[in-house]
Amino acid sequence: MKFSATTALAGSLALVLGFAAPAFADIKIGATISETGPASFLGDPEAKTLKMLVEEINAAGGVNGEKLELIIYDDGGDPNKARTFATRLVEDDEVVALIGGTTTGTSMAIIPVLEDAEVPFISLAGAVEIIDPVKPFVFKTPHTDRMACAKIFEDMKKNGITKIGLISGSDGFGASMRKQCLAIIGEYGIEVLADETYGPTDADMTPQLTNIKGKDGVQAVLNPGFGQGPAIVTRNYAQLAVGLPLYQSHGVASDGFIELAGAQAAEGVKLPGTALLVAGLLPENDPQRAVVVAYKEAYEKATGKPVSTFGGYAHDAFRILVDAIKRAGSAEPSAIRDAIEGTSGLVGTTGTVTMSATDHLGLDLSAFRMLKIEDGGWKIVE
């Protein structure tokens, strides 16, 4: 469990010395993040990003003259823990907003708590169900899985691919993206000839991939999933020498995926990603260039680690929240909620965000870049 060490130490000293603890912050922001566990490659950069940004903004004077306090818990990717921590953040810590829900499962567990408490929640997970249908106090920063499907199918159609094999993770993200892809695939004139799945702890997907390879007519393979599963699929795919284009999801859009799968096995893999992964390749006049370069440089200097798409989701959530508090001129949850919904033209690492009463994401397909792994790195293919 993670929490504000500064606040805890101050409280302990106050009790020992017999006086009330001073207020170290005026605006409390909560977070429940999967810093450890199977989704730690997502949650660790998210947590590091939030801590870094809070330090930066407090050093610059805070928000509307008030300092921020980040109270963060590590849910380990467990939806039950995420729900418990969300309740604690609202009832005991009295936060004015919550950022987190690293995975679809933890996000869906958090939503009822924040909706009941009427405290704004900005999710860092991908599933469209998080914001569709729209829930008054729930927002998100990553592109939806449905959008990822559309971006992939656009590229397939452009390349004359009309028949594919599908291999999906059975976790919350994989199952949701599979559902969304199947819902819209017909719009692109593409047919699924093979449909396989694998579990979150499976260590070998060779049988499923062998079934797909043996299916006559398959022209490409799509793997909706996140975590270690897609890396295993990619390695097995190379070992079987399937010889067809392999598409992955935005759920693995990070350098960590290349390292886990192996650069040789990952060579040629395509997926939709954000500008952050190709910051140095963006033209000077790209509106996102300054934002992604600044975040990339700050994060890598602060942590000594390469930036990731997932940390970018936390970066954008934090910027949306701070922008909303500034515009609202208030730290009341209801005022913050209204201001988040009124976000317009905010340039982040994931895209330019414009929300509304009917859109609690605020991104369109133009925010996605179709990327390809070449020579162990990322290339823009459009």
Question: Outline of this structure?
Answer:
Belongs to the leucine-binding protein family. The chain is α/β, with parallel strands linked by helices and 382 residues long. The protein has 13 helices and 14 strands.
What does this entry look like structurally?
- There is one protein chain.
- The chain is an alpha/beta fold and 382 residues long.
- It has helices at residues 5-17, 40-59, 79-91, 104-117, 145-158, 172-184, 206-213, 228-239, 255-261, 263-266, 289-303, 309-328, 333-341, and strands at residues 27-33, 68-74, 97-100, 121-123, 138-140, 163-169, 191-198, 220-223, 246-248, 270-273, 346-347, 352-353, 369-374, 377-380.
- Helix 6 (172-184) links the parallel strand 6 (163-169) and strand 7.
- The longest helix has 20 residues, at 40-59.
- Residues 27-362 form the Leucine-binding protein domain.
- This is ABC transporter substrate-binding protein.
- Keywords: Amino-acid transport, Signal, Transport.
Characteristics:
382 residues; alpha/beta; Rossmann fold; 2 domains; five-stranded parallel sheet; four-stranded parallel sheet; 17% strand; globular; disordered N terminus
Topology:
Blueprint (H helix, E strand, L loop, with lengths): L4 H13 L9 E7 L6 H20 L8 E7 L4 H13 L5 E4 L3 H14 L3 E3 L14 E3 L4 H14 L4 E7 L2 H13 L6 E8 L7 H8 L6 E4 L4 H12 L6 E3 L6 H7 L1 H4 L3 E4 L15 H15 L5 H20 L4 H9 L4 E2 L4 E2 L15 E6 L2 E4 L2
Parallel strand pairs: 1-2, 1-3, 3-4, 4-5, 6-7, 6-8, 8-9
Antiparallel strand pairs: 10-13, 11-12, 13-14
Family: Belongs to the leucine-binding protein family.
Keywords: Amino-acid transport, Signal, Transport
Pfam families: Peripla_BP_6 (PF13458)
